[in-house]
Each structure stands twice: as structure tokens, then as C-alpha cells.
Design a protein that fits this description.
about 60 residues; mainly alpha; rod-shaped
Length: about 60
């Protein structure tokens, strides 16, 4: 019964009959959060690589 009520509420929200976050907006937010996690991870990798290569350059220049 609760599942049916959730579906009805979701359909009403999607139709603009009820306030709240639409299914489309929720899906976009999930997608953007996942992309943000990936970008943060890539940024950490790039930071680590730049520290490594800076140390290598410093070692080779001595």
C-alpha cells in the first residue's frame, strides 16, 4: 500500500500538482553527485601526480 502511495505522490509531483523534487530533477542530482565524486577523485590523482613529478624534477635538478 505504501509503495502505491509513493508512486501516486511521485506522479503528482512530476505533474506539478504537488510540491517537491521531480523524478527528473532527482535523477539529474544523482548524476551530478556521481560526476562530482569522479571529478574529486581525478583531482586527487592529479594532485598526487604533480607532487610526484615535482619531486622527480627537483631530484634531477640537483
Amino acid at each position: 500500500m505504501q509503495t502505491l502511495l509513493n508512486w501516486i505522490r511521485s506522479a503528482q509531483t512530476d505533474a506539478g500538482e504537488r510540491p517537491g523534487v521531480t523524478s527528473e530533477m532527482a535523477a539529474e542530482m544523482r548524476k551530478l553527485r556521481a560526476e562530482n565524486r569522479e571529478l574529486k577523485h581525478a583531482n586527487e590523482i592529479l594532485k598526487s601526480a604533480s607532487v610526484f613529478f615535482a619531486a622527480e624534477l627537483d631530484r634531477n635538478n640537483k
